[in-house]
């Protein structure tokens, strides 16, 4: 009963957060149901199922969609009434808004909310997997896979490499405390990402490092007109980033080490 109570509390918290994002903001616009969008979605989901297997493919797709939905909710909370959700999982750029965040605080909140909102379904999936292990073993297995995949994906997404969410969080905080060092630090982390890609022979990390260098070369990556974080907001932002990363690391630790190995 205590476990179920805890799970119910987590879902209540997520409901209140999601509700706040849509209070007085109108209905959520879902785009991407055009033939091309549907075709890309089918390819993306099919590729995930083919390469990862049915359970892992569906779990990863669901996790990515929840992650992107978190960005949309954060956009709406920050006053972006045009924020909308594109049904093209695994293709990136699903959370859409025509307006840039007005402040670095909003930008950081929107960036971290993707991984942040995934904590509740991840923890709930672990709890339900344990509760259904004997009665519904297949459902229990899927819930466990979903929880671990969610933790691993969001942990990697929070690594401090541009253009991942973690890289953007690092850039925002650095720009607030040491604006002159922002570009140098971001370039340094991109170099670390490239070195890791070479050492681990990782295609994914190679792509991320190239994207990071490209985005830095053609644009600064942050809105110069944004109001910078205050010292207090910066400390709170770093704390939230560390806590969110730690939770996802614990949740996805088995898959994380499997991927690294």
UniProtKB/TrEMBL annotation:
It is a multi-pass membrane protein. It is found in: Membrane. Its cofactor is Zn(2+). Signal peptide: none annotated. GO terms for biological process: proteolysis. The keyword Hydrolase applies. Keywords: Hydrolase, Membrane, Metal-binding, Metalloprotease, Protease, Transmembrane, Transmembrane helix, Zinc. Residues 58-180 form the Peptidase M50 domain. The chain crosses the membrane at residues 39-66, 108-129, 141-164, 185-218, 238-260. It holds the Pfam family Peptidase_M50. GO terms for molecular function: metal ion binding; metallopeptidase activity. GO terms for cellular component: membrane. Belongs to the peptidase M50B family. PANTHER family: MEMBRANE-ASSOCIATED ZINC METALLOPROTEASE M50B (PTHR39188), STAGE IV SPORULATION PROTEIN FB (PTHR39188:SF3). This is Peptidase M50 domain-containing protein. It comes from Litoreibacter roseus.
């Amino acid at each position: 009963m205590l476990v179920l109570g805890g799970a119910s509390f987590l879902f209540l918290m997520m409901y209140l957060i999601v509700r706040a994002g849509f209070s007085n903001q109108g209905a959520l616009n879902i785009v991407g149901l055009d033939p091309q969008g549907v075709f890309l979605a089918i390819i993306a989901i099919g590729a995930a199922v083919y390469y990862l297997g049915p359970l892992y493919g569906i779990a990863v797709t669901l996790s990515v969609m929840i992650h992107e939905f978190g960005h949309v909710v954060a956009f709406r909370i920050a006053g972006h009434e045009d924020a909308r959700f594109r049904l093209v999982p695994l293709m990136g750029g699903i959370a859409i808004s025509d307006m840039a965040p007005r402040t670095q605080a909003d930008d950081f909140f929107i960036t971290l909310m993707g991984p942040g909102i995934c904590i509740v379904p991840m923890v709930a999936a672990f709890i339900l997997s344990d509760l259904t292990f004997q009665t519904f073993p297949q459902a229990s297995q899927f819930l466990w896979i979903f929880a671990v995949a969610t933790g691993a994906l969001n942990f990697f997404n929070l690594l401090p490499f541009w253009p991942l969410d973690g890289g953007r969080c690092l850039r925002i905080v650095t720009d607030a405390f040491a604006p002159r060092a922002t570009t140098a630090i971001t370039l340094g982390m991109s170099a670390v990402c490239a070195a890791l890609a070479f050492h681990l022979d990782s295609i994914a990390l190679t792509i991320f490092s190239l994207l990071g260098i490209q985005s830095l070369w053609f644009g600064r990556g942050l809105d110069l007109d944004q109001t910078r974080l205050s010292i207090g907001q910066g400390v709170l932002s770093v704390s939230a980033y560390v806590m969110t990363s730690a939770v996802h690391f614990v949740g996805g630790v088995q898959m994380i080490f499997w991927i690294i190995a």
